[in-house]
């Protein structure tokens, strides 16, 4: 097929010749009288050597336009395709988060000032039970944006290593091994939940801009809930909103549109903020993405912590659907409950 923008290809037309310069035409010899007459006289062209057909047209030149990444689930969902066409380009993280904060500004305590730490996390829509691998792909795109490890590669390695059968991931430990092998990053498995004594370690990790993979139970609106692991899902967080009593005087700047909200000043050394004390309600929110939405979601830290701590049972509906799933010895409780995965670039310190 020729591109609409490609020049048309035409065969050269020979120049006209002068009839006088052509050789005289010799008529064919008369047919013998005893032959039967043909219904149609032979055309002059039938007495000449057949002309071979012209060669096929060359293929169109290769385009240099950028090919967008594959959106999993798009082929099977016309509704999703139409929604994405109407939605336009995916907003940058800062704009998407500010939209989210404006929508929920009444949730935030007025006695606190707020500092937003948010890395630019990409989005990807999952196809089938690939929520964990999609979350890992997002984290990998943040850790090494130039590596371009495709989701298909993560799925392939996970299947070859026996971590998954359908794309599901029911083991944080296996997820860490996969991250190290396929993405070449540091992976730290967190045991004992997101609360004390791990809470400050997790928050400092997010303030630094590194991703955190969290298994949790997913509610109808994708937020954390408590279903004993029956709705086990994966999310990735690369940002946190901290409510503090006072913002350090150096290294932070107030948002011009949202008074009381501060951002780290780019290119400026800054002291780390004092972390809110555990048990201070409504003072810490995670910014998370998961494989069923393009947009960030804002989750209360304690809500995520509680959901992560009660992942104990395999979903009865999955157990009865006739498909094969890879579940570690000890079940969902041994593989997911109270665990999370902290990822860092290979050359970063702890």
Automatic annotation (TrEMBL):
What Gene Ontology terms describe what this protein does at the molecular function level?
cysteine-type aminopeptidase activity; initiator methionyl aminopeptidase activity
What keywords appear on the UniProt entry? Aminopeptidase, Hydrolase, Protease
Q: Which reaction does it catalyse?
A: N-terminal N(alpha)-acetyl-L-cysteinyl-L-glutamyl-[protein] + H2O = N-terminal L-glutamyl-[protein] + N-acetyl-L-cysteine; N-terminal N(alpha)-acetyl-L-methionyl-L-aspartyl-[protein] + H2O = N-terminal L-aspartyl-[protein] + N-acetyl-L-methionine; N-terminal N(alpha)-acetyl-L-methionyl-L-glutamyl-[protein] + H2O = N-terminal L-glutamyl-[protein] + N-acetyl-L-methionine; N-terminal N(alpha)-acetyl-L-cysteinyl-L-aspartyl-[protein] + H2O = N-terminal L-aspartyl-[protein] + N-acetyl-L-cysteine
Segments of skewed composition (Pro residues): 25-62, 266-275
Q: Which InterPro entries match?
A: ACTMAP
> What protein family does this chain belong to?
Belongs to the ACTMAP family.
Q: Where is the signal peptide?
A: none
Q: Name one GO biological process term.
A: protein processing
Hydrolase is among the record's keywords: yes
Renumbered to this chain, region (Disordered) spans 1-66, 255-281
Q: What is this protein called?
A: Actin maturation protease
Origin superkingdom:
Eukaryota
